[in-house]
């Protein structure tokens, strides 16, 4: 498989707490990867380090063979790294269409053209229409984002993250707060997009049903270190992973 992103001995401390401890990780193109671990394992910290939200204390990050360790967020986006967040980040008083139009115009460097109406940017609007179709929200294009169901708002947020046509897309707990019906629908869309698109997805998730049904590969973090890395079947049989989750439901029993 083709290497897309790689880290070398990535470290991040918050005081005396090690949130990333010599993390050596490779993300391969086209493989849907899930990152799991107990609370405080360092999952979100790792995503923040890879996407530029925080900088490491030491170590390196490479993307497509180029070192990007201290590259700012907006330049990583231009290179093809995007993300969604645990907390909803949409514009509730704008329509679904307008929500998607904003990041696309920004990506195309059109956001500062104050005297030209947005509807005149034909190529940008064609991309919005395409994106609406990709996330399955064409019939909701004119609805205010704030009136959507929680599941549809999450899908819209995924659409916002996909607007710059990323090569690598991180989704931080994409199904948080959803009911079972919404969860299944969003998962089906993520899997479909992973198969159909050029984007490679990395998901941080607590719901183990999601992890095992969706992933090609699972990375288990514990205390800022990679405890295990393998296919769902390999992770199910890993005794070290079982020990970490003792005291919690052993999520892969009878799966």
Describe this structure as you would to a colleague.
By secondary structure, the chain is of the alpha/beta class. It has one domain (3-244): 3-Layer(aba) Sandwich (Rossmann fold), CATH 3.40.50.300. The chain contains 9 helices and 11 strands. The strands form 2 sheets. A 6-stranded mixed sheet has the order 7-8-9-4-10-11, sandwiched between helices. Strands 1, 2, 3, 5 and 6 form a 5-stranded antiparallel sheet that branches. Helix 3 packs across helix 4, helix 3 runs parallel beside helix 5 and helix 5 (150-162) runs parallel beside helix 6 (180-196). The longest helix has 17 residues, at 180-196. The two termini are 28 Å apart.
How would the blueprint of this fold be written?
Elements: E1 3-14, E2 17-23, E3 26-28, E4 33-36, H1 43-51, E5 58-63, E6 66-67, H2 73-79, E7 81-83, H3 96-107, H4 122-134, H5 150-162, E8 168-172, H6 180-196, E9 200-204, H7 208-214, E10 217-222, E11 225-230, H8 232-236, H9 239-244
Parallel strand pairs: 4-9, 4-10, 7-8, 8-9
Antiparallel strand pairs: 1-2, 1-3, 1-5, 5-6, 10-11
Helix pairs in contact: 3-4, 3-5, 5-6
């Amino acid at each position: 498989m083709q290497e897309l992103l790689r880290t070398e001995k990535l470290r991040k401390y918050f005081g005396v707490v090690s949130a990333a401890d010599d993390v050596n990780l490779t993300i391969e193109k086209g493989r849907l990867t899930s990152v799991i671990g107990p609370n405080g394992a360092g999952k979100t910290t790792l995503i923040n380090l890879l996407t530029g939200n925080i900088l490491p204390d030491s170590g390196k990050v490479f993307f497509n063979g180029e070192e990007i360790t201290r590259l700012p967020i907006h330049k990583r986006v231009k290179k093809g790294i995007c993300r969604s967040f645990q907390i909803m980040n949409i514009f509730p008083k704008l329509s679904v269409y307008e929500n998607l139009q904003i990041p696309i115009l920004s990506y195309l460097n059109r956001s500062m053209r104050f005297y030209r109406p947005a509807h005149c940017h034909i190529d940008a609007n064609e991309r919005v229409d395409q994106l609406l179709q990709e996330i399955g929200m064409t019939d909701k294009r004119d609805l205010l984002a704030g009136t959507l169901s929680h599941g549809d708002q999450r899908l819209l947020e995924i659409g916002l993250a996909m607007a710059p046509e990323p090569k690598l897309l991180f989704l931080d707990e994409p199904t948080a707060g959803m009911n079972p019906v919404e969860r299944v629908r969003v998962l089906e869309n993520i899997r479909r997009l992973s198969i159909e698109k050029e984007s490679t997805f990395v998901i941080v998730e607590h719901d183990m049903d999601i992890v095992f049904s969706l992933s090609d590969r699972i990375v288990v973090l514990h205390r800022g270190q990679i405890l295990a890395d393998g296919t769902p079947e390999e992770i199910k049989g890993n005794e070290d992973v079982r020990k970490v989750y003792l005291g919690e439901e052993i999520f892969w029993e009878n799966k």
